[in-house]
């Protein structure tokens, strides 16, 4: 008899069966140990967000598997890494803590997202005291406004103040994609046509399907007031084969307009595929009849 369960030691035993038997087996938790050092020492150690003490420290009976280790210390940036704890073994990590400073960011208007080195650290106004010393890329972004970008120098145990005055963004449409590019009709497995795009500010949006002579075939969205940047529209309809285009029009509150279009092709499913679909359907019916 062999038992395997994630997080527990494997159990294996040879038994002689003479009749009905009931085996009670207590599996042992797979555990290991972790030794943590830091420079400087005295950092608070957390494993999977649970506090264990200060460095240097040896932590016993940690469940095996990958664990997130975090070391925190006032005046220093948090140190985080993952470590593999193996059953019956001692793992060791040594962390060099970096001095940290404070970053305070405000903006006009407020409520903008703040990204430091590409990582979302909150919304304005914000104060973050755990920023590693050195040079960092800062971005302040708010829907409807141009992104503010700059480079900030964080000094140890000092506060760096940044004020970002955001400028209104002109209305625009970007990232217009149509998937699939070849849209199959008259097929039992027809998929939706997916239309994705991004607008730069709140606007009234219209999305249409037009033929190549600019005649409207279908209206997917009409004067929809959007307060979010990313939009997705689905379409499913049988139309004649040929080339078509998706037309997106966005109008802001001042009447300024943005226009984008993307071409896609409509094709009928081939005869060969229809034959394959039929064979597949007959095969499914045959399997069902056997099971019944």
Please describe what this structure looks like.
Helices cover 7% and strands 56% of the residues. It has one helix at 271-291; strands spanning 2-3, 11-12, 31-39, 44-47, 50-54, 57-63, 65-72, 79-85, 90-96, 100-108, 113-116, 119-123, 126-132, 134-141, 148-154, 159-165, 173-179, 182-185, 193-199, 203-211, 216-226, 230-235, 242-251, 257-268. The protein has a five-stranded mixed beta sheet with strand order 18-24-23-20-21, with no helix packed on it. Strands 5-4-7-8 form a four-stranded antiparallel beta sheet, with no helix packed on it. A four-stranded antiparallel beta sheet has the order 12-11-14-15, with no helix packed on it.
Q: What is this entry, summarized?
A:
With 292 residues, the protein is mainly β.
CATH topology assignment of the largest domain: Immunoglobulin-like
CATH architecture of the largest domain: Sandwich
Compute the average pLDDT: 90
Instruction: Write out the strand line-up for the largest beta sheet, numbering strands in chain order.
Output: 18-24-23-20-21
- Cα-atom radius of gyration: 30 Å
Q: What is the highest CATH level, the class of the largest domain?
A: Mainly Beta
Task: Give a quick set of tags describing it.
1 helix, four-stranded antiparallel beta sheet, 292 residues, Immunoglobulin-like, mainly beta, 24 strands, flat, 56% strand
SSE topology sketch:
Elements: E1 2-3, E2 11-12, E3 31-39, E4 44-47, E5 50-54, E6 57-63, E7 65-72, E8 79-85, E9 90-96, E10 100-108, E11 113-116, E12 119-123, E13 126-132, E14 134-141, E15 148-154, E16 159-165, E17 173-179, E18 182-185, E19 193-199, E20 203-211, E21 216-226, E22 230-235, E23 242-251, E24 257-268, H1 271-291
Parallel strand pairs: 3-9, 10-16, 18-24
Antiparallel strand pairs: 1-2, 3-6, 4-5, 4-7, 7-8, 10-13, 11-12, 11-14, 14-15, 17-19, 19-22, 20-21, 20-23, 23-24
């Amino acid at each position: 008899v062999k038992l395997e369960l994630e997080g527990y030691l494997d159990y294996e035993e040879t038994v002689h069966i003479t009749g009905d038997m009931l085996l009670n087996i207590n599996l042992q938790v797979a555990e290991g140990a972790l030794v943590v050092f830091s420079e400087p020492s005295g950092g608070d150690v957390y494993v999977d967000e649970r506090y264990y003490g200060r460095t240097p420290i040896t932590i016993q009976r940690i469940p095996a598997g990958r664990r997130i280790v975090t070391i925190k210390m006032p005046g220093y940036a948090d140190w985080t890494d993952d470590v593999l704890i193996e059953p019956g073994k001692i793992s060791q990590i040594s962390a060099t803590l970096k001095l940290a400073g404070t970053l305070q960011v405000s903006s006009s208007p407020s409520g903008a997202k703040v990204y430091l080195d590409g990582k979302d650290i909150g919304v304005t106004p914000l104060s973050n005291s755990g920023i590693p010393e050195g040079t960092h890329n800062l971005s302040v972004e708010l829907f409807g406004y141009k992104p503010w970008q700059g480079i900030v120098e964080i000094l140890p145990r000092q506060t760096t103040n940044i004020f970002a005055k955001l400028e209104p963004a002109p209305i625009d449409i970007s990232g217009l994609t149509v998937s699939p590019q070849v849209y199959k009709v008259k097929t039992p497995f027809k998929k939706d046509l997916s239309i994705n795009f991004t607008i730069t500010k709140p606007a009234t949006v219209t999305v249409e399907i037009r033929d190549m002579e600019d005649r409207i075939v279908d209206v997917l969205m009409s004067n929809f007031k959007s307060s979010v940047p990313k939009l997705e529209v689905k379409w499913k309809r049988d139309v004649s084969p040929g080339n078509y285009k998706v037309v997106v029009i966005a109008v802001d509150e001042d009447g300024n307009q943005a226009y984008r279009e993307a071409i896609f092709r409509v094709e009928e499913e081939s005869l060969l595929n229809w034959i394959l679909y039929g064979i597949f359907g007959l095969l499914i019916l045959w399997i069902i009849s056997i099971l019944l």
